[in-house]
Amino acid sequence: MPVHQDNYSLGKQFHAALVTADWEAIRALLHEDAVWELPGDNAISGPAEGADAVVERARKIAGYGVNFTLLHILVSRRNMALSLHNTARRGDVVLDEHLSTVCTVRDGKIAAIETYLSDVDGMNAFFV
């Protein structure tokens, strides 16, 4: 199978595991030394270093009741990105952001994740 098809499948698996809270499945998609970078200054910002920390970050984000609507899976020659529309409500605070989660793929697994956001201030207000 061509690499871009493998990466598309990897993106589908990652999103499916995220929306079903299948933390073991996410863990299986990651390299041990995986890193996830998120912008902002809030409870989920900064680097999560190591596969266990990446899974814990996903669990924490999901714990806020976020809906992860998949818009597109984008593939390059070597890597993959998820285009998402994330929404949630916590009391009067609303999360409504578009983002791209860009994944560096190594040997068929996710080695690094960098998330790009449309509304960093809104994320900071939501994830306290």
Please supply descriptive tags for the structure shown above:
alpha+beta; 6-stranded mixed β-sheet; single chain; Nuclear Transport Factor 2, Chain: A; 4 helices; 6 strands; globular
Question: How does this model look, in words?
Answer:
The chain is α+β, with helices and mostly antiparallel strands. The protein has one domain: Nuclear Transport Factor 2, Chain: A. It has four helices and six strands, in the order ααββαββββα. A six-stranded mixed β-sheet has the order 2-1-6-5-4-3. The mean pLDDT is 96.
Secondary-structure element pattern, one letter each: HHEEHEEEEH
| Radius of gyration (Å) | 14 Å
* Top-tier CATH class: Alpha Beta
CATH topology: Nuclear Transport Factor 2, Chain: A
Please give the domain count: 1
Largest β-sheet summary: 6 strands, mixed
Molecular shape: globular
How far apart the termini lie comes to 43 Å
Pfam families: SnoaL_2 (PF12680)
Protein name: RNA polymerase factor sigma-70
Organism: Streptomyces rimosus subsp. rimosus
InterPro entries: NTF2-like_dom_sf, SnoaL-like
